[in-house]
Fold each of these.
Amino acid sequence: MIIKPNVAEALNTQTTNEFTNMFAYLVISAYFDDQGLPELAAFFLRQSEDERLHAMKIFDFLLETGAKPTLTGTPPVQNDFVNAEAAVQYALDQELKTTGQINDLVSIALAADDHTTHNFLQWFVTEQVEEVDTMTRLLQTVRHAQGNLLRVEDYVLRNMPAIVGAEAGV
Ligand SMILES: [Fe+2]
Ligand SMILES: [Fe+2]
């Protein structure tokens, strides 16, 4: 094992966090599907799959470095939303929380002089800039639409990449 036990433990926790995001976005996708908004439903389904890929990226890194991955159950995610804005706000909150988690992980790796993990984490540092930006812009669009969610559907169709995993490089 070429990474330290406390770093491996923190990475395991982040695997769980990414799976939590996977479930959160799956539920949001179901919410929009239920509302008859297929583009938003498809967008969050792709986001959910991206989160699964994030989790697997860390899972594979743990395997590669000889640190045995361990999985715990994910904490509950929000299942009910009063409106579209609340659902997207929840997604943005998740991304901001994830950004903090990644920052903390980088600090743990640096404190352990673990340049292997530090280097690995840079992909996530960059990814979070895009994730937060994407959700921020979507939230702004929902607000501008003032209840006309068909305009948000059009925005998602025109602006959101449709290829799952393209960003994850898989
Ligand atoms: Fe993620
Ligand atoms: Fe994300």
Amino acid sequence: MPTLIIGDLHGCAAELLDLLDKSGLASDDPIIAIGDLVDRGPDSPGVLRFFQQTPHARSILGNHERKHIRVLRGEIPPAPSQVIARQQIGEAGYPAAVAFMDSFPRFLELPEAILVHGFWEPGVPLSQQRETVLVGTLSGEDYLRQRFSWPWYAHYDGSKPLIVGHRDYSDGRQQPLIHQDRVYGIDTRCCYGGSLTGLLLPDFRLISVPSRGDHWGTLQRRYSALFTPGETPS
Ligand SMILES: [Mn+2]
């Protein structure tokens, strides 16, 4: 039975359906998102709904889900991308949506691969990796950059191939990363007009569909009244 791993969706619900159409999956084949289901795209609630309502689909935690969890706890202020997603979801449904995000595991280990949203610290077993590193927060990235040369994935030493999202590692070409058949990076910037990438296991076969547009640029213009002049939305 094939498993489809999906790169950063960021509210790109239409492209999710395009990718599922292209994948040729049977109706109950497993689907796993690499995190960052929400923020910056046109339909964060639609993407959340798909993963809530599809029994054979699940997601791991991305840094954007982690931001919503921390915003709702009052630990950090929301960035504009969280303010917009919260408006899309609606106040009535927001706590339940964030509770759903908080149920996502910080990593998954499959027979064929390890899945994390962000990064990996060499020399540390999976169960002892820092959450900030796995999820790809700025502090987790700083921690790695102070200790290891970049790119971090050149030092990958886990027991199985690693699949990550979070970054375009192709110098802006919006292409997936395949590093020595050991590290696969599948964020190809769909919400900015790139593409949505999937990886089919156990064969590690890449599939992709084009983005339907620069969704984040469109949203920033539509919600420009939320941003104070000179502020860079993130
Ligand atoms: Mn991310």
